[in-house]
Each structure stands twice: as C-alpha cells, then as structure tokens.
C-alpha cells in the first residue's frame, strides 16, 4: 500500500512538473515569437533558396522593418503555433526529466563539494534535453522551416505544420525530418547542461537557503544563465539549422555537420556561426522567464 501511494505521489509530481513547465514555456515563447523569427531568418538566410543574395536582411532592425512591409505584421508569428506545440512538450519534458535525472545523482553540498554539485546539475540538465529532443525533433524541424518561409499567399513554401512535415517526408523520408539531429544532440546537451546546471548552481550560490528570493533577483540570475548558455551553444544551433534547410532540396549543400562547419567558416569566418546571436540574447529573456515562472508555479502548485 505504501509503495502504491509513493508511486501515485511520483506520478502526480511528474504531471505537476509537466504542467508547470509547459504553461510557462507556452506563454513566454508566444511573447518573444517575433524576435525568434528574426533570429532564425538571420541565422539561415544564406542557405534559403527563397532569399536571393541581394535580398538578405542586413541585421535585426532591417528585418523588423522589412518583414511587416513585405509579409504583413502577422508574419512575425509565422510558425508560432508549431513552436508552441513543440515547445510545450519539449520544455515540460526537459523540466520533468531534469528532476528525475537529478534524483539519480548523489546530493552534493555546494559548500563542501561545489564541483561535484555543479557536475551533477550539468549532467541532469544535459540528459533531460537530449532525451526530450528525440521525441520532438520533427516539430522543431517544421517550426524552423515554416519560420524562414518568406513567401506570401500562393508563394508560401508550406501552408501549415502538417503540409510541411508531409512535404519533406515525401521527398526525403523520415531522415529529412531529422536533418541535423546529431548536431542538435551535441548542442542541446551543451545548452541544457549550462542552462539547467548553471541556474540550479548559481541560484544556490547567490540565494543559499533563501527559498523565496524576490522576482527581479531570480530573473537576473536566470537571464545571466540563459545568455551564457545561448552563446556557448549557438554555433551548434547555426550548423543544425543550416542542415535543416537542405531537406527537400534536390541538390544538398552540405554532406554532413563537419562539412557544414568547414564551409561556413570558409564563407565568413567565426562570425558566421553567430549570425542572429544578438537577437538570441534578447530572445533569451523568454528563457529566463520560463525558469522563474516554473519555480513560482511549482510553489503555487505545492510541488516545492
């Protein structure tokens, strides 16, 4: 009987984690959707067969000026529905699995075993991200392709989420929907390890045993972590999204991730890996809000 109660308690805790993480993620992602789309366009426009070299966006301000004029204001949210659908289970599973993986490691004290404490948080965060990615990658792929579709009306490359997935599947099979997956796994481990591990660690270092730090202080810690994690993993993200852009094309641009790295570096040096990076920092505000809202929701739902 005791085992049954413990199991039910664990299930309820897991579902509570899913709800808290998913709600927080859905709201924050919708708020920063325009920045997200601009970031993606700047990041992959050189690999898009829709954007001629002389029509490429010159930067964040140029993109924000031209997008509503050329595609309409509503186009800032292009791909947002699939992003919310994808992001809800992704972030919810990340948070839920992070706590489960975290429970697998010994509970080290940040005061006496700081690096072991930090390593355990990094590992649990990275494993959570990699596990979740396996299930939702086709949705992430579709979101990227829809967000960088600059066509209007009948010139749209994809009419919606279902059309995007079915079109690529018919041309390239399941492999087309998983273009860049290997690089994504590497990037997501680096990002999530820094994101979750850094937040849990910095929160403990800054706040110590204070269970109710003020909202602004929590946000500042989360913002610092998301900016650093985003910059560390950004080159991986650029390569994986460039690989995504070649699905469905008769002529492939890159033979694999290493070839992509090589060609991008030859194209414009190190800076090419950080195109859209500044908008990614701004967008990171949403990621920081997710972390803070998640903590607050857990407390409101009695999970902490």
TrEMBL record:
It catalyses: ADP(in) + ATP(out) = ADP(out) + ATP(in). It is found in: Membrane; Mitochondrion inner membrane. GO terms for cellular component: mitochondrial inner membrane. The chain crosses the membrane at residues 114-137, 176-195, 215-236, 272-294. One of its GO terms (biological process) is mitochondrial ADP transmembrane transport. InterPro entries: ADT_euk_type, MCP, MCP_dom_sf, MCP_transmembrane. Its main location: membrane. Pfam families: Mito_carr. It comes from the Eukaryota. Keywords: Antiport, Membrane, Mitochondrion, Mitochondrion inner membrane, Repeat, Transmembrane, Transmembrane helix, Transport. One of its GO terms (molecular function) is ATP:ADP antiporter activity. PROSITE patterns: SOLCAR. Coiled coil: none annotated. Belongs to the mitochondrial carrier (TC 2.A.29) family. Catalyzes the exchange of ADP and ATP across the membrane. ADP:ATP antiporter that mediates import of ADP into the mitochondrial matrix for ATP synthesis, and export of ATP out to fuel the cell. Cycles between the cytoplasmic-open state (c-state) and the matrix-open state (m-state): operates by the alternating access mechanism with a single substrate-binding site intermittently exposed to either the cytosolic (c-state) or matrix (m-state) side of the inner mitochondrial membrane. PANTHER family: ADP,ATP CARRIER PROTEIN 1-RELATED-RELATED, ADP_ATP TRANSLOCASE. This is ADP/ATP translocase. It comes from Coemansia interrupta.
